[in-house]
Amino acid sequence: MDTILVTGGCGFIGSNFIRHVLQEQLVAKLINVDLLTYAGNPANLADFEDDERYVFYRADIADEEAINEILSTHQVDVLLNFAAESHVDRSIVDPQAFVRTNLVGTSTLLNAARKQNVPRYIQISTDEVYGSLSFDDPAFTEQTALNPRNPYSAAKAGGDMLVLAHEHTFGINACVTRCSNNYGPYQFPEKLIPLMLLNAMDGKPLPVYGTGENIRDWIHVEDHCRGIAAVLQHGQTGRVYHFGGDCELQNIDVVRRIIEAAGASEEQITYVKDRPGHDMRYAMNFEETTKELGWTPRISFEEGLAATAQWYRDNQSWWKPIVSGDYLEWIEQWYGERKGAA
Ligand SMILES: NC(=O)c1ccc[n+]([C@@H]2O[C@H](COP(=O)([O-])OP(=O)(O)OC[C@H]3O[C@@H](n4cnc5c(N)ncnc54)[C@H](O)[C@@H]3O)[C@@H](O)[C@H]2O)c1
Questions:
Q1: Does ligand 1 come within 6 angstroms of the Cβ of 105?
Q2: Which atom of ligand 1 is the closest one to the Cα of 9?
Q3: Would you call 47 a catalytic residue per the annotation?
Q4: What percent of the chain has pLDDT over 90?
Q5: How far is the CA of 265 from the centre of ligand 1 (A)?
Q6: Domains by residue range for the chain, with CATH
């Protein structure tokens, strides 16, 4: 593999993926295109800043001119789109931002990739596009009809459909990966596991939506990144690949395990008004992916959660500026210096 372009590489999963492919020496060159929204933090990749294989651009995936310019500067072999607005709660407050990045941004990338003859495109997506399961429904398969029920998942579903439509209509080589809830290092502390971990460690309240019965499947981000790397190496055009952790848990169980891992108290749990339209259950059947790529998750939730709790304990210098909001100023300063030096 020569050159890959990753969008959203300064976010949680994108930065873990970049770390994985550079450490495993899977590519000769990696271009990271990220707008550096509140969720994008160059500190996630500080260890690769001087790596000659790594190139960074600050750009919006919905900005056709900027994307065309980057793609005409580099001979990109595979474009992987991780960039997204990714927090469901924010999509309820501001759906437009989600349509712009997750739908218009995906369309812009596809258009530019086609014009610039990028040979392959991989879309990183989510189990949420399938909507909600009841407690005894079978898990989602690749054939399950899309039925998104919040602005985040609706915009992601639209993006996925555009990718597969471009594959069908224009004959581009493209596929989609869908995964369940990720956790692990560098996850922005607005998401369930890091939010609860930090609050638990700090003796703060642990806000649980509704009754806490909603079920999610949990996968360690390293298992997800290993799966995406397998798709990068062996994935076929037109396919949808599923990744899951084989670990369905009610939110309240996740919070109880976090309390245990952090040595906190059950008394910190506070039940808060449920999220509007809150999906009850997601579950992934990934047998087809296992058959085709030989991929299975390796990290158990117990092991992964303990390691994640330790990571947040050891990396206060990463999350403290995020929690205080100071990181935003640091990012602009970092970017200004970088631009000045370029
Ligand atoms: N986090 C999960 O549990 C999960 C599960 C399955 C799939 N996914 C998908 O994986 C991808 C990455 O998720 P994440 O959790 O790392 O998200 P994240 O919010 O941590 O990171 C998103 C990144 O995209 C960048 N970005 C946002 N808008 C952009 C734009 N218009 N142009 C360029 N860059 C932009 C941000 O700056 C940030 O670096 C998303 O597509 C998401 O839908 C996430």
A1: yes
A2: 39
A3: no
A4: 98
A5: 32
A6: 3-184+220-244+282-299+328-337 (3.40.50.720)
